[in-house]
UniProtKB/TrEMBL annotation:
Protein name: Purine nucleoside phosphorylase DeoD-type
Its job: Catalyzes the reversible phosphorolytic breakdown of the N-glycosidic bond in the beta-(deoxy)ribonucleoside molecules, with the formation of the corresponding free purine bases and pentose-1-phosphate.
Sequence positions that bind phosphate: 20, 24, 43, 87-90
Coiled-coil intervals, chain numbering: none
Quaternary organization: Homohexamer; trimer of homodimers.
EC number per UniProt: 2.4.2.1
NCBIfam families per UniProt: deoD (TIGR00107), PRK05819.1 (NF004489)
Enzyme class, first EC level, given as a word: transferase
CDD domains cross-referenced by the UniProt entry: PNP_EcPNPI-like (cd09006)
Recorded catalytic activity of this chain's protein: uridine + phosphate = alpha-D-ribose 1-phosphate + uracil; a purine D-ribonucleoside + phosphate = a purine nucleobase + alpha-D-ribose 1-phosphate; a purine 2'-deoxy-D-ribonucleoside + phosphate = a purine nucleobase + 2-deoxy-alpha-D-ribose 1-phosphate
PROSITE patterns reported for this sequence: PNP_UDP_1
Residues that bind a purine D-ribonucleoside: 4, 179-181, 203-204
Record bears the keyword Glycosyltransferase: yes
Organism expressing this protein natively: Anaeromassilibacillus senegalensis
């Protein structure tokens, strides 16, 4: 056990789906998994293991922001022998061609965070997804007819930032959407030689003001969930 996870060794599958919201983890477990068993309730960061189409899969919340997913993904990789983590979250679309409920698959994750400073690298690290997971996710999205985009995310430490034009500046660099976790997940995976992929359903368009409701974000982003379940 860890300070944040009460699971015992063997109770968590080799692949973990990680939505930010623990209630989304509960929804996925109860909707899609056969015989789901809850392995964690610490801080209400719910985690479940069950089977989907005969394969063992776990799903666990990550919380909001890079410090939070940094803790949970680190523990899963290092202490529970997890091999792959697939983030299934929400994001704000900023590219003109990205629409509400589209799925964005993060090939890379730019960031305004100082998370990489811990590695004391002699330069700037570029956090990227595992190509095998990314390639398979693209194939599954095409097969399911899901509207999707592949490219850069911006993982921001700020939800309420003081610089109003920051998203416009990232948009100029071809970034597709903004979220708050992918870069830390990709860095943790890289550092310990594991796999990671971040997918996000577009929940809002911050540059235009369009948005889905909290209830929709919790229970209706099913296309992304189904891609991730078949990817695991």
């Amino acid at each position: 056990m860890t300070p944040h996870n009460q699971a015992k060794k063997g109770e968590i599958a080799k692949t973990v789906l990680m939505p930010g919201d623990p209630l989304r983890a509960k929804f996925i477990a109860e909707t899609y998994l056969e015989n789901p068993k809850c392995f964690n309730t610490v801080r209400n960061m719910l985690g479940y293991t069950g089977t989907f189409e005969g394969r063992e899969i776990s799903v666990m919340g990550s919380g909001m922001g890079m410090p939070s997913i940094g803790i949970y993904s680190y523990e899963l990789y290092h202490f529970y022998d997890v091999e792959a983590i697939i983030r299934i979250g929400s994001a704000g679309g900023i590219a003109d061609h990205v629409k509400l409920r589209d799925v964005v698959i993060g090939m890379g994750a730019c960031t305004d965070s100082n998370y990489a400073a811990q590695y004391r690298l002699p330069g700037t690290f570029a956090p990227t997804a595992d190509f095998g997971l990314l390639e398979k996710a693209v194939s599954l999205a095409r097969a399911q007819g899901v509207p999707f985009h592949v490219g850069n995310l911006i993982s921001s430490d700020l939800f309420y930032g003081d610089y109003a034009d920051s998203l416009t500046d990232w948009k100029k660099m071809g970034v597709l959407a903004v979220e708050m976790e992918a870069a830390a997940l990709y860095m943790n995976a890289a550092r310990c030689g594991k796999k990671a992929l971040a997918m996000a359903t577009v929940s809002d368009l911050p540059l235009t003001g369009e948005a889905t409701t909290p209830e929709e974000r919790q229970t209706t982003f099913t296309q992304m969930m189904e891609i991730a379940l078949r990817l695991a």
